[in-house]
Amino acid sequence: MKWFLILWAGPVAFLGAWYFLSYYDMSFGFFMLTRESHDLVFQIYGNVLGIAPESIPPLVARAIAFDSLIVFGIIGFRKRKDISAWWRRRYPSKEAASLPRADSLSSAP
Question: C or N terminus of the chain, fewer CB within 10 Å?
């Protein structure tokens, strides 16, 4: 499971870091981090896909959000016993709390 998260989060973090740094032209001397390369990459992808380059970043963001939901769904499914035990500890059932207890001092009917 650890490697699953690493192999998912690594490319997402790499893409996010590249997008942020190249969008704001923080190149640190690397061509791939310049705004020029940012525009060039999206122009190439736009030509290959046949869509406007400005529409690609929102599509990528939606794909990352969808993939994230799938990844967290898989994690939740694998940890469902731990999650349900945590939920029961956090929110005890009201039925168990409303039953009379032996140490109750009330003798009223």
Answer: C
From the CA atom positions of the chain, what is the Rg in Å?
26
> Is residue 52 within 8 Å of residue 46, measured between CB atoms?
yes
Q: What's this model's pTM, rounded to 2 decimal places?
A: 0.72
104 near 41, Cβ under 8 Å?
no
- Separation CA 16–CA 65 (nearest Å): 12
Whether 71 and 5 have beta carbons less than 8 Å apart is answered as: yes
Q: What is the mean pLDDT of each run of 10 residues along the chain (109 residues)?
A: 91 94 89 92 95 94 96 94 92 68 62
Structure tokens, 77: 């499914």
